[in-house]
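Consider the tokenized backbone below.
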């Protein structure tokens, strides 16, 4: 049996630790370097309409067409079919695991749940009028977290005009969605980079056992 050479064995152990640490540091540095590019990296995005109303379908189609080419918008029909195969308690209040499972089945980086409606309202000051609204839930498929949610609402004297006004705001809505996804993408890359950076363990910690740093 070969006797243990304390000098060479410790040296190789230290070298392995340094190489491993250097590799992780390089990965972290690369991720941080690529953060500015995250703004232009194409992300796979699914637009989902759980209510499946005619107005939802009309609005979501317009929204899909309005989103820029830098995002890869997945086929809505296929995304909806895949989404329905996932067991979810409340689609408007999903847990992290439910959201990640849905994204994995759909094959997307982010998905946007859209809900629209038109309601008749009345007030003493103006009489009857209509309010058209849309709610957007932007969800990260990688973390399962809710990136953002926001409401758009417009009023008009008749139902069709209220929806037309809502539809006219879709270009601004798509820009807001893009900005939310860009910010989330940068944040997720930064978190991944931070997780890769490893410091020398404390002398008294279990991780420092049999470790002799070069410095």
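A designed sequence for it:
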């Amino acid at each position: 049996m070969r006797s243990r050479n304390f000098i060479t064995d410790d040296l190789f152990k230290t070298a392995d630790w340094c190489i491993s640490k250097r590799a992780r540091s390089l990965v972290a540095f690369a991720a941080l370097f690529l953060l500015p590019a995250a703004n232009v990296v194409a992300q796979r995005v699914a637009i989902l309409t759980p209510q499946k109303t005619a107005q939802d379908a009309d609005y979501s189609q317009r929204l899909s067409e309005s989103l820029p080419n830098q995002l890869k918008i997945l086929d809505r029909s296929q995304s909806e079919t895949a989404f329905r195969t996932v067991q979810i308690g409340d689609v408007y209040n999903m847990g992290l695991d439910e959201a990640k499972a849905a994204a994995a089945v759909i094959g997307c980086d982010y998905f946007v749940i859209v809900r629209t409606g038109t309601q008749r309202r009345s007030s003493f000051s103006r009489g009857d009028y209509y309010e058209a609204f849309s709610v957007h839930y932007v969800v990260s498929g990688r973390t399962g977290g809710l990136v953002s949610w926001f409401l758009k609402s417009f009023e008009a004297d008749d139902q069709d005009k209220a929806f037309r006004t809502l539809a006219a705001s879709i270009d601004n809505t798509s820009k807001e969605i893009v900005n939310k996804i860009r910010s989330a993408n940068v944040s997720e890359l930064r978190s991944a980079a931070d997780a890769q950076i490893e410091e020398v363990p404390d002398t008294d910690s279990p991780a420092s056992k049999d470790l002799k740093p070069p410095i």
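Strands lie at 44-48, 72-73, 110-123, 127-140, 146-156.
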